[in-house]
Amino acid sequence: MVWKSSGPLKTCRLLLVALFLSQGTASSVLTVNGKTEDHFLDTLPGTQASLECAVQNHTRDEELLWYREKGRVDLKPGNKINISSVCVSSISEEDNGVNFTCRLQSDQTVSISVVLNVTFPPILSGNSTQTVEENNDVRLVCNVNSNPQAQMMWYKNNNVLVLEKDRHQIHQTSESFQLSITKVKKSDNGTYSCTASSSLKVESLDFHLVVKERGLRVPIEPIIAACVVVFLTLCFGLLTRRKRIMKLCIKEKDLRNSETAL
Ligand SMILES: *[C@@H]1O[C@H](CO)[C@@H](O)[C@H](O)[C@H]1NC(C)=O
Ligand SMILES: *[C@@H]1O[C@H](CO)[C@@H](O)[C@H](O)[C@H]1NC(C)=O
Ligand SMILES: *[C@@H]1O[C@H](CO)[C@@H](O)[C@H](O)[C@H]1NC(C)=O
Ligand SMILES: *[C@@H]1O[C@H](CO)[C@@H](O)[C@H](O)[C@H]1NC(C)=O
Ligand SMILES: *[C@@H]1O[C@H](CO)[C@@H](O)[C@H](O)[C@H]1NC(C)=O
Ligand SMILES: *[C@@H]1O[C@H](CO)[C@@H](O)[C@H](O)[C@H]1NC(C)=O
């Protein structure tokens, strides 16, 4: 019966504590490099960026957590309470768009994020030479990475590529610029250039498309079938002959046995 009277009291105390705790943290604010809102940080490859997270309007020690995307950043013991800095050294093109988040350990809904905005000229890559047989389909894939985004174009032998509605198709994603040609003709042979123009630079990459004449097609299936038949025949032949060979051996053995017995 004791618990009945202390029950409501306990809940009341718990509620009060919870209220106090939530008030203590709800008014806490995080800043990164002095900003209270999520923001982009403009940087260049090869440089480094320092991110300083600080808690404000707090009433006690507040532990801070840093995340790079979904992964916790290991912080040194002296770099956790009330204020915490991370340094992103030797920034590369791959760091563009990477998200850094600082959180309150005591209430992880309180957080602030910084997204790196790494500016760099277009970087192009792809298979420089492709060989295709006449009448087959081919796809030239020009991988592109650029910030700001680049305007993409295909050229053929240094002229703007004139697209044929039925045979040429262009497909663009955030990472690549692709040219598909169906039923390749001899006249498609040539050098195709993928060109990326950003406000920083115009970059170009050559793709050599070599169209081979349709060779004499050797029908491969009948050849395999014929080989199998020949092989099986040989096997059967050997089997039957083996029996005979064994018979001969036994006969010889018998002869030799009789010889030694003499
Ligand atoms: C933090 O405290 C300052 C003054 O100390 C006050 O102006 C501000 O409104 C507080 N911020 C929050 C979110 O409570
Ligand atoms: C963190 O901030 C609280 C409140 O301002 C303060 O009492 C405490 O000493 C600070 N702790 C450190 C390690 O600076
Ligand atoms: C950064 O990541 C945090 C946590 O995953 C997310 O809440 C926030 O929206 C992200 N910000 C951007 C700009 O992607
Ligand atoms: C990234 O930086 C470039 C160059 O400084 C700027 O033009 C662009 O607006 C920035 N992008 C964002 C999302 O802040
Ligand atoms: C380049 O072409 C070769 C042969 O066609 C292929 O095996 C390889 O995966 C291609 N590489 C890329 C990056 O597309
Ligand atoms: C086909 O294109 C390649 C690559 O541009 C070039 O080297 C070659 O001379 C061309 N061949 C013919 C027959 O036009």
Automatic annotation (TrEMBL):
Residues of the Ig-like domain: 46-113, 121-206
Membrane topology note: Single-pass type I membrane protein
Keyword Transmembrane: yes
A GO cellular-component term linked to this record: mitochondrion
Signal peptide: 1-26
Record text on subunit structure and interactions: Homodimer.
Record's protein name: Transmembrane and immunoglobulin domain-containing protein 1
Organism for this UniProt entry: Nannospalax galili
Higher taxonomy: Eukaryota, Metazoa, Chordata, Craniata, Vertebrata
